[in-house]
Amino acid sequence: MSTYLLAHDLGTSGNKATLYDTQGNLRASTLYAYDTFYPRPGFVEQDPHDWWKAVCQSTRALLEQSGVAPGEIAAVSFSGQMMGCLLVDQEGEPLRRSIIWADTRSGEQEERMIRLIGAERGYAITGHRLSASYSAAKLLWIRDHEPELYARAYKMLNAKDFIVAKLTGRYWTDYSDASGTNLLDLRAGVWSEEILKALSIPRDLLPELHASAEIAGSVLPKAAAETGLLAGTPVVLGGGDGSCACVGAGVVREGKTYHTLGSSSWISTASRQPISDPSMRTFNWVHLDPTLYTPCGTMQAAGVSFQWFRDTLCGEEIRIAGERGESAYRQIDEAIRRTEPGAGGLLYLPYLLGERSPRWNRNARGAFLGLHAGTKKAEMARSVLEGVGYNLKVILDIFDARTPIDEITVIGGGAKGKIWLQILADIWQKPLCVPRFREEATSLGAAVCAGVGTGVFPSYEEAVRLNPPEERVLPRAEYAERYRALYRLFNQAYDQLCCVYDGLAELAL
Predict the structure, then answer these.
(1) Which member of 305, 352, 435, 496 has the lowest number of beta carbons within 10 Å of its beta carbon?
(2) How many other CB atoms are found less than 10 A from the CB of residue 369?
(3) For residue 163, which phi and psi values (nearest 5 degrees)?
(4) What is the pLDDT of residues 371-403, one digit of tens each?
(5) What three-state secondary structure class fits 146?
């Protein structure tokens, strides 16, 4: 009997493959890392062949590690990084490296989209700003700069859709991933003819739209030979990583809220209707459950900021950690623990990759403000974590003003860091709930999707049972006023630096 669900989470740093039984128990997991390429400032790409290699090798490793036979896999499904642009030919072969979510090269194309469609109209149709962050602007950049390649393109795909095509031969996408393209009519659930016409993008270039839990097909013999799966194994389409994370966190009912603390970071909720922000600071995905939406705000460089700090300024900690066989983050956390909340008045602006929500400023850059001769490295480290917390609070405040938020579930790799969780709770003055599956929550969402698609699970509500809360982090009221004051200064600092950011962008150094 087929009793296991296989989920692949194609993230930014690698593919996390997980195997769950139908009771929601994690049987095994493995991670296969792949490279990200930065050919020029603002250019961020990945090789889709690396994605396929990651899926093949991690699937084989998972089956070997767990002792589960291929015939015991009830279905395979996917979570994938969103907002990318991969062009493939009629054989499904990539025509170039994929332009991924973090890429911001398409500023000129963004401006053209706004002229042709209108900023407010684009937001009304798609639930998102018209932005260089999304697939449409990246597609236009390829058309402008690589016209011969564009002319050979058969389909534009996102990461999980490419893998589904490799497994099944079908070019499908789901509503959640489609909602990150700037091309979907969010409420109607169809590709927007108005936008396609305005941008002269042929409808045939886009994949078929389907619900996340639909079975796209079964594993083809060639793909079975490469992955180690059994030919004929059902392939459930799955969803974008944001919507899979939402389900994995148990946010499957209206009003529930969660936060993903990873390389990028976001705050999202579940809603029966999209939430429109008058200033267009936040946006809306489609949930894996197509009757729901996930209003969301996403910042670019959360975990990326902490990683940059470690790699750039913590060589000694890395050396000692290597000798001890432990993570350098553990040493950095211990140093932070000995510092006072507020980092001695030091502010960090976390804009290493420009910024999406809430700033929508591709020229924004990182900064430390308040350095003095007595500033310690540990205070700088704390300020990095606090700066991410301040930036996320801007997003949280937008949703909190509409419907007061009582509690926030936190998932992602950063949820392992108790110091960071306490900092977030203190800045937001909200209790945080940490579930059983933190790093695996996104893949759990994909596994639940596989279970719903094959009838193993009756509904997405099953996620609440499968990922129960294990601990709570309570805010400390004694630091509330200090953080309120620093939060005001954080926002003021960003506003005052905008002209500097623009000036630096004009220098193009």
Answers:
(1) 496
(2) 16
(3) -70, -40
(4) 999 999 999 999 999 999 999 999 999 999 988
(5) coil
Amino acid of residue 72: E
Token pair of 192, please? 């927007």
CA angle 382, 388, 389 (to 5 degrees): 85
Apex 376 CA angle, 375 and 379, nearest 5: 95
Contact 299, 387 (CB under 8 A): no
Opening angle at CA 379, ends 374 and 380, nearest 5 = 100
Rounded Cα distance, 97 and 95, in Å: 7
pLDDT of res. 356? 85
How far CA 202 is from CA of 125, 135, 139, 278, 459, in Å, comes to 18, 14, 12, 31, 36
Residues whose CB falls within 8 Å of the CB of residue 148, separated by 6 or more in sequence, listed in order? none
From the list 248, 225, 193, the residue with the least C-alpha distance to 443 is: 248
Q: In a 3-state reduction of DSSP, which class is residue 79?
A: strand
The first and second tokens of residue 340, run together, are: 């006072």
Contacts of 507 (CB under 8 A, 6+ apart): none
